[in-house]
Amino acid sequence: MRRYLLIVLTFFVLTSCLVSSDAQQSIQAAYGIPQWSDAIPDETLIEHTGYIVSFNSTTNLANYVVWTLTADRLVPAVTRNMARFEADNALPYQHRVNYKDYSGSGYDRGHLCPAADNTWRLQAMLDCFLMSNICPQKHVLNDGVWNDLEQACRRWAYQGDTLHIIAGPIVSAEHDYIGQEHCVAVPQKFFKVILRRHNGTDMALAFLFSNDNTNRRIPDHVISINEAQKITGLRFFPDYNGNNRESLFNNTAIQGWRFYK
């Protein structure tokens, strides 16, 4: 019996390591998993079909979600009504936030990696609705400029661009909680970082949004990737070795982005 338990535990440990190793090599993170500038916080890396999530069991939220968006990910093979919000069974039971935790909270179940980026495969759509990919968002943000930027990303991908995207919440030391069965932290802000290959040229911008934001002008939320790194404590796209990395990641110019139709 002891020998059987040892085999099972050994397999579990090896499998857990492989999850992180595979995530490091994944197409979802073509330029590497974001690296923490200081001590690594509470983090569990999980690779799902269309994205990788860094989950924080202290906040019961993602630290960030990373994915790659191309035109072939937007093939309308499935629709969002084929999926529903579900707990992420890759997490320990006590951190499996569920649908009810958001009920009556006044917050939307806001996707980090959006459903419309995952129409290419049923499993991708199902994984997109796992609660580890969800954060409490005010409706005015979720249905406002956050959604506007998601739509812009899809237009660029439809046009043939490749987008490497990282999005996540920013939770301050003093924050509210929601949840009926689990304590879920409420973010004050959200960030999105985009590295975009357009006509053979790399472009990069980051964006910062307050959770209660009412300003739908996407350009008003632009910051540089370097500034986003300071705010989040993350080093984005660590394997990107372009000669123009420093100037690219300091950029805040919006020429050529065309956020609207």
Quick summary of this structure?
This protein is an alpha+beta fold. The protein has 6 helices and 13 strands.
Task: Write up what this structure looks like.
This protein is α+β, with helices and mostly antiparallel strands and 261 residues long. It has a domain at 2-78 and 138-171 and 186-249: Extracellular Endonuclease, Chain A (3-Layer(aba) Sandwich). The protein is built from six helices and 13 strands. The strands form four sheets. The protein has a seven-stranded antiparallel β-sheet with strand order 2-3-4-7-10-11-12. A two-stranded antiparallel sheet has the order 1-13. Strand 10 (189-198) and strand 11 (201-210) form a beta hairpin. The radius of gyration is 18 Å and the shape is globular. It starts with a helix and ends in a 12-residue tail after the last helix. 36% of the residues are buried.
